[in-house]
């Protein structure tokens, strides 16, 4: 029986932060060595960071990546590991991985299939490598200034009799994945360095291709992912996966607050080889062995280890989507806070669902962060915020990091004010009330004098609503400036779809954390947080559910902007349409690209409680509002990517600012 101890590491990297990234890489290598690991897989582009965007064109990024590669080398004595970096050949840039063996570079593999859908734009910066091609790459050692030659391209490795091949992230997601060709070489281990962004339920897709790769190719399969909010919008959930002989050998924690986490397992190489010998897969004899890189290496004798999965218990929750959302938002906000060096967050707390959700997520980032990495490590990561360094509890820290403001006008109600006050108290936020009614009235006077007429709801409805929302922005921006804090916008995706937001009002902020999630989900999440709660730990063995029960005062309300006089009984759904129906049209029209007529057919099947005339009216309304409000979506603050229905025009859903507004199609309904 030939046993091999392998590991994968998740790393929380920062684009072009060379020393930070190198420190994490070295830490992962040292942690793996302490576990007596022989083969370690690190994430894709972990040296440079995955999200460098157009800086991948910069010669300096390529030079610094090579420098860090050589500085990491001495730390790989006694271990085999891979590191990802951008590399240039013939004036083309490639997404590459270097395999480092016992302190030396063995060679380089280049990614063959580039991610160019959704939030990924790899074909903009990188060139895909050609199957079964390899070249000799001349590389100048930045330390000795001598030129060194390495095989580069579609290559595999024979390290001390263990054969290692690569599928780099997207390579494993395509039908003609490289693992099929690698199986012809009798590969023992496939490494998959990845930068796979978080989306709901995506971990199950990853598990499937890792398990299937391990089973079909008869290999130990090592999948390593990035972790955290790397560059602003995408959140990487980590979640290392190790499989062998078609079975899970270990799975690492997801959405952790650690910078480095190493997950290991012992795999049986002989068992995989037997599986290959029994495979019915057609065998294609390789044309040559010139793409094989052979390096002598002595592997230590390893004893079997029991299966001890590192997955968190919340992964098995009956409310997995709510748990994922909570932890993704908490980690995304925490990383954005520390990487932008902001001193806290400011939220315009209206007493409604959206601002309540954002405020709760700020509190939960503190609670979950301290639970995950401990109080001292949490404060160490926020070392630049002196105000929290002597504090001991979640509530004390929340009082410094979460600043909220309720800003009523004469159209605001006691209901929303009480809800805002109760929630701010429950979260121990530093809470302010700024009555802006007189400022709104002053604007009325200025405009009335200029127009030489009185403003009235019958003639100036939108203007009178919007001025209230816009007047709220300067005061919360002032609070953000005074505290050097980050103002969070509270608009959601449903509102973004139809432009139901006041530009420079409720859209004001440097970050819009919930702009990627729909209102229907948010309302259900708030009810879950009120009544069920997020799984948290009391100690190493006891868990409990943390609830925020005062959310009842938010959840009992019908969503309302409170911008018209109270006698109008304004609600969001009266202004628009039922939120679940709005989200259904958005999914069909925008994600699935269906025509207005096809959308209406689907609505008639799904929402039979409404008459056909009303469904037609709402369909027309959606398409017109969607088309005329693209300019608003272009101006939203950066938002987190949370599922595959994102509307962010900079990363996911491009639509012309000027268009026909589907008028021909709507006329045919």
UniProtKB/TrEMBL annotation:
ATP binds at residue 490. Residues 4-271 form the CN hydrolase domain. Deamido-NAD(+) binds at residues 466, 495, 632. It catalyses: deamido-NAD(+) + L-glutamine + ATP + H2O = L-glutamate + AMP + diphosphate + NAD(+) + H(+). Pathway: Cofactor biosynthesis; NAD(+) biosynthesis; NAD(+) from deamido-NAD(+) (L-Gln route): step 1/1. Signal peptide: none annotated. It is an enzyme of class 6 (ligase). Keywords: ATP-binding, Ligase, NAD, Nucleotide-binding. This is Glutamine-dependent NAD(+) synthetase.
């Amino acid at each position: 029986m030939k046993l091999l101890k392998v590991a994968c590491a998740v790393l929380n990297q920062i684009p072009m932060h060379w020393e930070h990234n190198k420190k994490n890489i070295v830490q992962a290598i040292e942690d793996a060595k302490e576990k007596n690991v022989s083969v370690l897989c690190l994430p894709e582009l972990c040296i440079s960071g995955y999200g460098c965007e157009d800086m991948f064109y910069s010669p300096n990024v390529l030079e610094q990546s090579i420098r860090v590669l050589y500085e990491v080398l001495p730390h790989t004595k006694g271990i085999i590991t891979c590191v990802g970096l951008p590399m240039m050949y013939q004036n083309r840039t490639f997404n590459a991985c270097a395999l480092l063996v016992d302190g030396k570079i063995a060679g380089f593999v280049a990614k063959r299939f580039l991610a160019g859908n959704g939030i990924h734009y790899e074909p903009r910066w990188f060139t895909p490598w050609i199957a079964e091609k390899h070249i000799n790459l001349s590389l100048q050692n930045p330390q000795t200034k001598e030129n060194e030659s390495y095989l580069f391209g579609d290559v595999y490795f024979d390290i001390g009799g263990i054969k290692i091949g690569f599928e780099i992230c997207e390579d494993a997601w395509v039908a003609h994945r490289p693992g099929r060709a690698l199986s012809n070489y009798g590969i023992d281990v496939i490494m998959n360095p990845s930068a796979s962004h978080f989306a709901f339920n995506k971990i199950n897709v990853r598990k499937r291709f890792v398990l299937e790769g391990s089973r079909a190719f008869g290999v130990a399969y090592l999948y390593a992912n990035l972790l955290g909010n790397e560059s602003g919008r995408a959140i990487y959930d980590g979640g290392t996966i190790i499989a062998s002989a078609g079975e899970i050998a270990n799975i690492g924690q997801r959405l952790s607050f650690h910078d480095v986490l190493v997950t290991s397992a012992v795999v049986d190489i002989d068992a995989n080889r037997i599986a290959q010998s029994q495979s019915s897969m057609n065998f294609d004899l390789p044309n040559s062995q010139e793409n094989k890189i052979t390096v002598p290496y002595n592997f230590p004798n390893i004893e079997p280890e029991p299966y001890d999965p590192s997955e968190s218990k919340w992964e098995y929750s009956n409310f997995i989507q709510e748990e994922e959302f909570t932890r993704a938002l908490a980690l995304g906000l925490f990383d954005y806070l520390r990487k932008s060096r902001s001193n806290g967050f400011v939220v315009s707390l209206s007493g409604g669902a959206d601002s309540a959700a954002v405020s709760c997520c700020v509190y939960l980032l503190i609670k979950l962060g301290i639970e995950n990495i401990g109080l001292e490590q949490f404060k160490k990561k926020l070392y630049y915020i002196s105000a929290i360094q002597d504090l001991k509890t979640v509530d004390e820290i929340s009082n410094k990091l979460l600043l909220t403001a309720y800003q009523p006008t004469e159209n605001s109600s006691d209901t929303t004010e009480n809800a805002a006050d109760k929630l701010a108290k429950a979260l121990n936020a530093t809470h302010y009330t700024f009555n802006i009614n007189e400022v709104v009235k002053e604007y009325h006077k200025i405009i009335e004098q200029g127009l030489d007429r009185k403003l009235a709801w019958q003639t100036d409805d939108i203007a009178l609503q919007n001025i209230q929302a816009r007047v709220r922005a300067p005061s919360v921006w002032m609070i953000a400036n005074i505290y050097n804090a980050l103002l969070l916008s509270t608009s959601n995706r449903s509102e973004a779809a139809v432009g139901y937001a006041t530009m420079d009002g409720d859209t004001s902020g440097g970050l819009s954390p919930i702009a990627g999630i729909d209102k229907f989900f948010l309302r259900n999440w708030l009810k879950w947080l009120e009544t069920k709660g997020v799984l948290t730990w009391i100690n190493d063995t006891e868990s409990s559910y943390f609830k925020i029960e005062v959310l009842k005062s938010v959840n009992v309300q019908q969503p309302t902007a409170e911008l018209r006089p109270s006698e109008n009984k304004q609600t969001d759904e009266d202004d628009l349409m039922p939120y679940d129906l709005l989200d259904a049209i958005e999914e069909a029209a925008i994600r699935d690209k269906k025509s207005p007529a096809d959308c209406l057919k689907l609505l008639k099947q799904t929402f039979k409680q409404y008459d056909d005339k009303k469904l037609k009216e709402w369909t027309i309304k959606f398409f017109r509002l969607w088309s005329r409000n693209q300019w608003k979506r272009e101006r939203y603050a950066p938002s987190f990517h949370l599922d595959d229905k994102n509307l962010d025009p900079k990363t996911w859903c491009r639509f012309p600012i000027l268009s026909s507004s589907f008028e021909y199609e709507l006329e045919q309904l």
